[in-house]
Structure formats: structure tokens, C-alpha cells
Design a protein that fits this description.
With 243 residues, this protein is an alpha+beta fold. The protein is built from nine helices and five strands, in the order ααβααβαααβαββα. Strands 1, 2, 3, 4 and 5 form a five-stranded antiparallel β-sheet that branches. The longest helix has 26 residues.
């Protein structure tokens, strides 16, 4: 089996419709230019807001771009980011993926790049992680609970911990948004290529310096049809009880 194996079976009668939604939620990059109603966009953001948020802090904000002039100004930034990706990481097919299938994926990426100014909706999830509230007594108790070796490791991995903490507060909501888009018949795909030029994106969209951005999600009506996703079989990825 490879990553191109089709892992989709229709839900049994009476089974959860969510499973059908997830199993046909491809990254759809070819979008019609038709406008999406504001109430539909609000439904997508509502779904995102319903997502879990670490510590229930809910420090997320969403920039939603629909203005054609703004999208046209973003299009050159998108092109630079995509071209950078395709020249490096995106130059080669992932291990286990058929070259022809990867070629089709790249063609869709290039189509989206070349038609980006016509994107109906672009969603930028943002998060401002609050300063931690720490005191000496709590730090001592934490070190005692972890032990000296683990405490030292924790001190040297703060950057990774911070990134994961922020991401865990944002990406569950992003997944909710993608699921809601699919359920509403909309195409969407999550990208982080904008991070190559994050400062330029933030400047163009007026996003505050202390606000981190976590994705750029184009949304619109699909040109093609939804279909089964291609993923590795469960038996290949699960380790029961231990590795």
C-alpha cells in the first residue's frame, strides 16, 4: 500500500455523516470566482470558534479577505511563496506518492497561484498567546513535579513548546473550518506558505506585529468534484500500547 491507496468506504446506513465529510475532504485548489455570501462565511468562522482552545483562552482572531482589490495585492505575495515552495520542498514527490499523481497536485497548486486574484475568500487564522502568569512558588513546585532532568530539558525546549501550545489553540479550529466548508459544498485548503513572507502579509493586511499567523486558507466553490481522499491504511500507522 502507498499514500495513493484510496481509504474510503461509504458510511453504513444510519452512520455518522461526519465520516463521509472527512473521507471526501480533499484539498480543493481550483476555485470558481463566484462570491460567497457573508452568512456562509460567518458559518465557517463560527465552526472555527467552536474548536478546542488550550486553557479555554480563546485568543484567536480571523482575518477574512473578500475584497478583490486586496486579493489582487496579495496575489504577488502568494506567487512568490508558492514559487519558493515549488523550488525547494515541493520540487519532489513525497515518498510513496505516484509521480503522475504528484504532477496533478502541482498543476492544481500552479492553477491556484495563477488565479489567486480571483479567490472568493481567504481566511488567515491568527493567535496572540498571552504572557504566562508565573510566580516563584509555582516554578519551584513545577520543577519538583518534573524532576531535575526533565526540568532542564523543558528549559531548552521552550521555543518548541510555545509553538506547539499556540498551534494546539489554533489548528483544531482550522480543521473545524475545513470540515464546515466541505459540509457546505465549498472547496478549501490549508497552506502555511505565507510564512515565507509573513511580515509582508501582515503589513498588507494590517495585522499587529505581536499577532502570529498560522495559515492562509483559500475558500470558494469548487471547479471540480469532491472525491475520496487518499491516505495510508490505519494498519500501517497505528502502534498499539507501545511503538
Amino acid at each position: 500500500m502507498t499514500t495513493e491507496s484510496v481509504q474510503h468506504e461509504s458510511s453504513a446506513p444510519g452512520g455518522p455523516a461526519l465520516f463521509d465529510t472527512m473521507s471526501t475532504m480533499r484539498a480543493m485548489r481550483r476555485l470558481k470566482p463566484d462570491a460567497i455570501p457573508d452568512e456562509t462565511i460567518d458559518q465557517l468562522i463560527q465552526a472555527a470558534v467552536w474548536g478546542p482552545s488550550g486553557g479555554n483562552m480563546q485568543c484567536y482572531e480571523y482575518v477574512v479577505v473578500t475584497d478583490r482589490e486586496v486579493m489582487a495585492r496579495l496575489a504577488p505575495l502568494w506567487k512568490r511563496c508558492v514559487d519558493s515552495y515549488l523550488a525547494t520542498t515541493g520540487k519532489y514527490a513525497p515518498k510513496g506518492m505516484d509521480e503522475a499523481a504528484y504532477g496533478r497536485m502541482v498543476a492544481a497548486i500552479e492553477y491556484q497561484r495563477d488565479h489567486f486574484a480571483r479567490t472568493p475568500v481567504l481566511v488567515i487564522p491568527c493567535y496572540r498567546f498571552p504572557e504566562p502568569r508565573l510566580d516563584e512558588e509555582g516554578l519551584i513546585a513545577s520543577a519538583q513535579a518534573l524532576g531535575p532532568e526533565a526540568t532542564e530539558r523543558m528549559m531548552t525546549s521552550q521555543a518548541r513548546f510555545q509553538a506547539l501550545a499556540e498551534g494546539s489553540c489554533v489548528y483544531p479550529g482550522v480543521q473545524n473550518l475545513l470540515l464546515a466548508a466541505r459540509a457546505l459544498g465549498l472547496a478549501a485548503n490549508i497552506t502555511i506558505w505565507h510564512l515565507f513572507l509573513e511580515e509582508e502579509w501582515k503589513r498588507e493586511l494590517g495585522i499587529p506585529d505581536d499577532m502570529a499567523t498560522f495559515a492562509a486558507i483559500p475558500v470558494g466553490l469548487p471547479v471540480g468534484n469532491f472525491g475520496p481522499v487518499r491516505r495510508r491504511p490505519v494498519a500501517e500507522v497505528v502502534h498499539r500500547d507501545r511503538w
